[in-house]
Write a structure and sequence with these properties.
This protein has 160 residues and is an alpha+beta fold. It is built from four helices and eight strands; from the N terminus they run ββααββββββαα. 24% of the residues lie in helices and 38% in strands. Strands 1, 2, 3, 4, 5, 6, 7 and 8 form an eight-stranded mixed β-sheet that branches.
Amino acid sequence: MKKLAFALALIAGYTIADENKVDDRVVYVSEEDQEMNKAIVQAQQTLDQFLITFRNPPEGAENFKLKVMLSDKSGVEHFWFTPFKEIDGGFAGVLANEPSVITSVQTGNVYAFKRDQITDWGYEQAGVQHGSFTVCALFKFMDQELVKRYKQEHGFVCSS
């Protein structure tokens, strides 16, 4: 059973030492994990609405981000990109996580990617995380005290 690496990013907790680097953890998840796959589908199905919000942000909305699946000869990994922008043929953004599996990318560099590589999105408004569906799916793999702290300190509101 193949495992995929997901960056569990606390975008609300930016570590501004590297302007946009995210304080994150890597969680390995089976590519067959139903909850994670449902989270990715939900993010992809709501991506258009997110992009509308991104293009015309409501007051107080900040820290817009996209999670993107990248692969190379070393494997597959999902990274947060922030900031990002729309470009001809897709998107470009700053890789905000330290690679754990992938060896062909570096934190802080700008990379282009296509819409079909996007596996999640998110932003904050009034202390609440919007989107970040994969983060909620990762919570089941984490110590519950840490999950409670993430929810309290970073505004995650998960349906499960």
